Amino acid sequence: QVQLVQSGAEVKKPGASVKVSCKASGYTFTSYDINWVRQATGQGLEWMGWMNPNSGNTGYAQKFQGRVTMTRNTSISTAYMELSSLRSEDTAVYYCARGEPGGNWFDPWGQGTLVTVSS
Amino acid sequence: AIRMTQSPSSFSASTGDRVTITCRASQGISSYLAWYQQKPGKAPKLLIYAASTLQSGVPSRFSGSGSGTDFTLTISCLQSEDFATYYCQQYYSYPPTFGPGTKVDIK
Fold first, then answer.
1. Distance from CA of A112 to the nearest CA of B (A)
2. Which of A6, A45, A65 is most worth mutating to test chain B (most B CB atoms within 10 A of its CB)?
3. What mean pLDDT is predicted for residues A97-119?
4. How many Cα atoms are found within 13 Å in the side-chain-facing hemisphere of A75?
5. β-strands B70-75, B62-67: how paired?
6. Which of B10, B42, B94 to probe the A interface (max A CBs under 10 A)?
7. Nearest to B87 among A44, A103, A108 (CB)
8. What is the pLDDT of residues B33-88, one digit of tens each?
9. CA A47 to CA A37: how far, in whole Å?
10. pLDDT mean across residues, chain A
11. Distance CA A64, CA B76 (A)
């Protein structure tokens, strides 16, 4: 079945970077965009950006421009999201989600990766 | 960015109830709207896309309607497993944006 499996929880200090992975299975990795969405505890969903695994093209939300980088390794069907200059407000669960071609709804989602930023 | 609002923000209901959640976009988005269900500690799950198309495997008690700026998600007969938070999302234009969520809990 179509599945996205993310890397485990991370604890980082302010100013550090974090890199979260998202391994796809059950479909052709290069045929669908991968999006990243985050959710702070008790809060709503915030879209961060997308990546086309075929071309490597990316698009980032203005809020994260300059701090986020989305990449992929097609040989292992894995997408990555790296967020730098972490601050306490970046503490959240980060999700990857497959974007449907021709219509950017998200299905399925990865299980989420908790990133905690604390000194 | 297009702003999405939802009402109510939360409410209590009983098993068997018919419930309706409203989502409004700050500008017209045609039918480029999706609905998700999220349970505590879990990832969101797609229920509906294109405003009214039920995702494969989603029970038929869920339905969506609307176009332009006003949309609704209806659960015809609430089941115990439906107590969750529901989010709408527009994908008419970048960036895609989500509503703040509607939490449905047990009365």
1. 7
2. A45
3. 93
4. 0
5. antiparallel
6. B94
7. A44
8. 999 999 999 999 999 999 999 999 999 999 999 999 999 999 999 999 999 999 99
9. 4
10. 96
11. 40
CA B9 to centroid of chain Cα atoms: 12
What one-character-per-residue DSSP string does A13-57 give? -TT--EEEEEEEESS-GGGSEEEEEEE-TT---EEEEEE-TTT--
Under DSSP, is residue A68 helix (H, G, I), strand (E, B) or coil? strand
Interface of chain A against chain B, CB under 8 Å?
A: 35, 44-47, 59, 61-62, 95, 97, 100, 103-112
Using a CB-CB cut-off of 8 Å, the residues of chain A touching B50 are: 103
Position A103 scores a pLDDT of 72
**Hey, is the C-beta of B34 within 8 angstroms of any chain A C-beta?**
yes
Q: What is the band of A91 on the pLDDT scale with cuts at 50, 70, 90? A: very high
* Cβ pairs A/B, distance under 8 A: 54
The answer to whether A87 touches A80, Cβ cutoff 8 Å, is no
Helix (H, G, I), strand (E, B) or coil at B9: coil
Is the bond into B100 cis (omega within 30 degrees of 0)? no
Partner residue opposite A111 with nearest CB, options B43, B91, B94: B43
pLDDT at B90: 98
From residue A97, how far is each of A4, A16, A64, B37 by CA, in Å? 8, 25, 18, 14
Which of B42, B50, B55 is facing A103, going by the closest CB pair? B50
The 8-class DSSP code of residue B4 comes to: E
The arithmetic mean of pLDDT across residues A46-60, rounded, is 95
